[in-house]
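Subject: complex prediction, re-run

Hi both,

The earlier run crashed halfway through, so I resubmitted it with identical inputs.
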Amino acid sequence: MSTLAQNKADLERASTAQKVADMLRERVLLGELEPGLRLSEEAIGGALGVSRNTLREAFRLLTRDRILVHEHSRGVFVRRPTGEDVRDLYAARRVIECGALRLWNDVSDAQREAVRAPVRQAVARAEKNDFSRTGSANIQFHRGIVGLAGSARLSDESDRLFAELMLAFRVAHEVEAFHQTYLPWNRKIVELLNNGTVEQAVQQLDEYFDAAEQDLVSRLVAD
Amino acid sequence: MSTLAQNKADLERASTAQKVADMLRERVLLGELEPGLRLSEEAIGGALGVSRNTLREAFRLLTRDRILVHEHSRGVFVRRPTGEDVRDLYAARRVIECGALRLWNDVSDAQREAVRAPVRQAVARAEKNDFSRTGSANIQFHRGIVGLAGSARLSDESDRLFAELMLAFRVAHEVEAFHQTYLPWNRKIVELLNNGTVEQAVQQLDEYFDAAEQDLVSRLVAD
DNA sequence: GATTGTGGGATTGTTGAACGATTCTACGAT
DNA sequence: ATCGTAGAATCGTTCAACAATCCCACAATC
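This time it finished cleanly. Structure:
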C-alpha cells in the first residue's frame, strides 16, 4: 500500500522550516538565487513571513545539504563551488559511482533498468532534436548508477553532490547545454554493460569523469 | 604554516550551538546518552544554561550528523540504528572503501602510511596485551582507507558513518571488544597491499565487511 | 476484557522583541 | 594611497509567550 507511505510523507512535511528550506533550495537550483549571493535574514524572513528563528532553522537544513555556506557573524551565502570543490566532487564521484557500477552483475533487474532508462529517453529526445531535459536525464543516469550500491545514505549523499555540481555548472555559466555533450559517453557505458564487459564500462565511466572534471574546471570563472 | 590554519579553526569555533553540539556528541559516543533516549529541550537546555533556540540549533547540527533523529512535535532522540541501518551502512562502506583501496598505487606515500600505521600500532599494543584503544585503531585504519580517495567530503561522510556505526555497536552491547576480532583481517589486508596485490586486498576487505556486518546484525538486540 | 473516545498536562513549534557582539562602510586623518 | 575610527547594519543569543501537537490516564462502549 504505497498510498499510506505517501500520506505519511505528506504529514511529516508539516514543519515550516522544512517548507521554507524546500522553497529556497528550488530557488537556488533554478538559478534565481545565484552562487555567492548573501541571504539576509531580515529580507528573506520578511518576504516569506516567517520569523528569524524559523528562517535560521531553514538555513541550517540547507547548510547541511551544502546548498548554503554559513560564515560566523557574516550570514549565509549561496555556495559558490571553487575549483578545489569540483576536484573533490569528482574524486568522490569516481569512488562512489565506479564502485557501484562494478556491482552490475549482482543487482536486481529494476536497478539495472534505472541506469538504462534515462539514456534511452535521452537518446529518444535527442533524435527529435529535443534537448530540453537533457540535463536532468544525465543526472538520472548517474543517480541510477549510485542506486546499484543499494544504500539509501549513499544515494542521499549523491543527491547532495549533484546539487552542488549544479551550482558549479551555474558558476561556469553552463547549465543545460553542458550535459548533452556527454550523452555519447553514457550510451557507450550502457552498451558495454549490456555486452557483459563491466570492467570496461567502469573504465569508460572513469574517463568520463576525467573529461567532465577538466571541462568544468576550465570553464569555472574565478570571479 | 599549520598554526595559522589551526588558529583560524579555533576562532571559527565561537558558536555556542557548536560547542553544545560537540559536548552532546561526545556524551552520546561515550555512551552516557544511550540510543533511543529522548533529549528534552527544557531539561538539557536548563542543565547547560543555554536557551531553547540555541539548543535546538545544536540539535540540528547533530541531526545532520545522524547522531540524533528528529520526530516532528515529539522531540529529538539519540539514534538507535536498526538492522536495516547496519545493512545500509555496510553497503555504503563496501562501495566507498573498496573503491578507495583500489587507488592504492595512485596515491601519495603519506596516504598509504595513514593506512599502515594504525595496524602497526594495534599490533604493537596487542603484543603487550593492551587492548585499550583497539577500537579507535580499527577506525583509524578504515579512515585511512577512505583517505586514499583524496576527497574531503567523502572523508567527512565516512566520519559520520563511523559515528553511526559506534551507535550500532552500543545497541549490540559491543563497543571495544568488538573491534579486536578484526585485527588479523587488517594485518592481512596491509600485507596484501605491501605485496602489490591490490585486487586481493580489496577482496579481503570485502570479506571483512561481510563478516563484520553479519556479526553486528546478529548481535543487535531488537529492543 | 479489549477497544475506542476524551479529557488535561507536558512538550514542541513558532513568533516577536530585545540587546550585546561582530562586521561592513564611509569618512576623515596621516 | 594607507590607515584608523565612528556609526550603521547585521548576526548571535536569550527570553517570554502562545498555538499546535503529542502523551497518558481514565471513562465509555461494545
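Chain A has two domains: 2-78, 83-219.

- K.
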